[in-house]
Write a structure and sequence with these properties.
Number of domains: 2
Strand content: under 5%
Number of strands: 0
Structural class: mainly alpha
Helix content: 55-70%
């Protein structure tokens, strides 16, 4: 499954089973998921509870959204810059070689 392919209910269930004393390797084998993802979920839960330093889930979501919005705005700005360059390069349709009076 993809990066966000696991439902929140599964994550919560796995973390509850870990808290009850189950081992990561046993859970991974029984549920057919990577033990690495279980370690990641456990670490994020520890961060969210303030036990270890790091970005909390809400902060991580906000940061991801902000980065996405910045990329969109940069792409939009680039389009405007290119359009501006094209307009500057266009010649005057009336013939700019005439002098103004």
């Amino acid at each position: 499954m993809g990066r966000r392919g696991y439902p929140a209910e599964l994550r919560r269930r796995v973390l509850d089973l870990l808290a009850s004393g189950r081992r990561v390797t046993d859970l991974a084998r029984d549920l057919g998921i990577s033990s690495q993802i279980i370690y990641v979920w456990r670490r994020q839960e520890q961060i969210d509870r303030g036990e270890i330093p790091g970005l909390m889930s809400a902060e991580r979501t906000e940061l991801t959204s902000a980065k996405r919005r910045i990329r969109e705005l940069e792409a939009e700005l680039e389009i405007h810059r290119r359009a501006s360059e094209l307009l500057v390069d266009r010649s005057d349709p009336k013939g700019a070689s005439r002098r103004s009076r």
